[in-house]
Predict the 3D structure of the following.
Amino acid sequence: MRKLHQVAAACAIGAIMLSGNVLAQATATPSGAAAPKKEVTGKDLAFDRRKGNCLACHAMPTLSDAESPGQYGPPLIAMSARFPDKARMRAQIWDATTFNASSSMIPFGKHGVLTEAEIDKVADFVYGL
């Protein structure tokens, strides 16, 4: 009986190892390299709870996949009309306290929550709302 358990365990381990190899081959490109990661978009960053997390405070009513929007900040709609100068809106994301010392908006750039490139992506996304 002990031999039977050893054989079954060996078969199970072999199957796990084989399935791992098959999975690795399935995700690799034809050249054998790992599949490239998807480029992170401004929308991804804005919806990411660990990054922009815009939905924690702002509603984005034009987006059907914007779940549980916040009601604390102003809704992010008609942003190009509200901020004709896109650079001004980007500066608001970087550090809102520059324009309003009592702002409760997180200074995403000043505090290093988002990188400069990430702020550019979020600004592009939000400006299009």
Notes: The domain at 42-127 is CATH 1.10.760.10 (Cytochrome Bc1 Complex; Chain D, domain 2). Residues 7-12, 14-24 have pLDDT under 50 and may be disordered. DSSP finds five helices and no strands in the chain. The chain has two domains: 1-37, 42-127.
